[in-house]
């Protein structure tokens, strides 16, 4: 019985190490892949340290100031390099209640002054693809007209769809306070 138990434990530990190895391999492959669309693949060590130091000094969570940036938020800023207001709102939780618009603009300013000019942002990506959707021009994609095959469902002369939606509710000519309980 003890042998069986030790074999079970060994099997569980082997699977755990295999899962950990697989996770580490996948994670490293994801971040080392040059084709992966990371926003900031060419940041220098100095620019990251400068950005982190600037953010920590100006917006760090020090004693008594709970509206500062957490370590995780500062790391996300380093990775994503948000240069637009919309991108900042994706990084911070409860951004409206924690920061004024001036503070958010100063965070964006710190990001712009500390990171290299080769950074890729959503706005530069949009300019490159402007007018294209899945490789097609916008004009080709949107041709509006009446589609004879368009069907809302089982709609007949008596508006069965509307009647079905109202099923169980008050009659159209009956007030809500007149409906029996």
TrEMBL record:
One GO term in the molecular function aspect is: nucleotide binding
User: Key word Nucleus present in the record?
Assistant: yes
Cellular compartments annotated: Nucleus
Where do the record's region annotations for Disordered lie? 119-181
Q: What family is this?
A: Belongs to the eukaryotic RPC9 RNA polymerase subunit family.
Q: Biological process (GO) annotations?
A: transcription initiation at RNA polymerase III promoter
Tell me where on the tree of life, at the top rank, the source sits: Eukaryota
Task: Show the Pfam families listed in the entry.
Answer: RNA_pol_Rpb4
Q: What is this protein called?
A: DNA-directed RNA polymerase III subunit RPC9
Compositional bias, Polar residues, is annotated for: 122-132
UniProt entry keywords in alphabetical sequence: DNA-directed RNA polymerase, Nucleus, Transcription
Mind telling me which GO cellular component terms the entry cites? Answer: RNA polymerase III complex
Task: Identify the InterPro entries for this entry.
Answer: HRDC-like_sf, Rpb4/RPC9, Rpb4/RPC9_sf, RPC9
């Amino acid at each position: 019985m003890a042998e069986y138990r030790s074999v079970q434990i060994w099997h569980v530990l082997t699977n755990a190490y295999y899962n950990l190895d697989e996770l580490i391999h996948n994670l490293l492959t994801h971040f080392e892949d040059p084709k992966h669309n990371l926003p900031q693949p060419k940041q220098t060590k100095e620019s990251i340290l400068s950005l982190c130091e600037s953010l920590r000094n100006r917006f760090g969570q020090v004693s008594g100031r709970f509206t500062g940036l957490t370590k995780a938020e500062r790391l996300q800023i380093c990775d994503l390099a948000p240069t637009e207001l919309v991108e900042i709102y994706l990084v911070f939780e409860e951004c409206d209640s924690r920061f004024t618009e001036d503070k958010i603009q100063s965070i964006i300013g710190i990001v712009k002054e500390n990171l290299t000019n080769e950074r890729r942002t959503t706005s530069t990506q949009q300019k490159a693809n402007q007018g294209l959707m899945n490789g097609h021009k916008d004009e080709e994609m949107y041709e509006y007209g009446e589609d004879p095959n368009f069907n809302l469902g089982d709609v007949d002369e008596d508006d069965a769809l509307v009647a079905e939606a109202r099923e169980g509710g008050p009659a159209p000519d009956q007030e809500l306070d007149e409906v029996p309980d």
